[in-house]
Here is the input.
Amino acid sequence: MNFLSLFAAALWRLGYLADSKTRLAPKKNINFATPLLGVGSLLAGGAGKTPYTAFLAEQIKSQGFKTAILCKNTGDENLWFAKKGFEVFCGNRLRLCKELDGKFDILISDDGLEDRRLNAFWICLTWGERAKSLQDIIPHGNCRSLWKDHPEIACIKKCAMEWEEEAKTADVVFAMKPPVNANGDVLQANSEIIALAGIARSQRFFSGLQRDYSIAKKIDCWDHFNVLKKAENALKLGLPVVVTEKNAVRLTPQLLEKKNLFVCELAVREKRL
Here is the structure.
C-alpha cells in the first residue's frame, strides 16, 4: 500500500509540474492596476484559508478600501463569503482579475497559489507541514506541492488552534466561538451533542467541541460535502446538533430555524508585530 501511494504521489507530482510549466506558467505583459493579495497553503485543504481571507477582507474594508474576494466556482466558499456580506466573484481567477481590474482597490484570492500567472502577493498559511519530498505529496502525504515550488510566496504565517501549545508562538490563531442557534441561544456547556462536519481536517472541529461538550456522535463527511440530509437526520435523534459555519451555508432557512441546530463560528486572531 505504501508503494502504491508513493507511486500515486509521483504521478501527481509529474502532473503538477507539467501544469505549472504550461497552463499555469507566468505570462508576459500581464499587469493589473488593482493589486491582488493571495491567501494560499501547501496543504490539500484545512489550512484556514477561507476564514483568514474573510479576516483580511474585513480588516482592509475597515480602512475604507473597496475590496472583492475571488474564489473557485465549486464548493461552498462563495456562499460563505456572500453570507458574510463580501463582494465575491467565482471562476477562473486570471479572467476575473482582467474583468475587475480598476473596479476595486484590492482583490483577495482565496486559494489559487498554484496559478503562477496571477502575480499576487502571496500569504501562505502553514501548520508545520514539511512539504519537502514525495513523502509529503498527496495521496501519500498532506500537501499539493513543495516549498521549493513557490519562490513567489512573500509571507509565511504559522497557524494554530487556540488550545494548542503552538498557539503561543503562532502568527495566526483560530478560535471556536460558542455554538449559537437562530434565536441567539448559546449551547449550554457540558451538553451532550451530535457534531457534524463536512470540512477538511474536521478533527480540529471535534477536538474544539470536546473541550466544552460531550459528543455522543460524530458525523464526519468529506470536504465540501452538502450536509443537509445528514443534519436533517441528526436532528431526529433529539440531541443538539452542532455544525461548522462553513457547512451551515448549505442548510435551508427552515432547518437553520430549528432550536436544536447550533452553528459554531471561527474567530481569527493575528499577532501584531
Notes: The chain has eight helices and twelve strands. Residues 199 and 223 are 4 Å apart (CA to CA). The domain at 2-168 is CATH 3.40.50 (Rossmann fold). The chain has a mean pLDDT of 94.
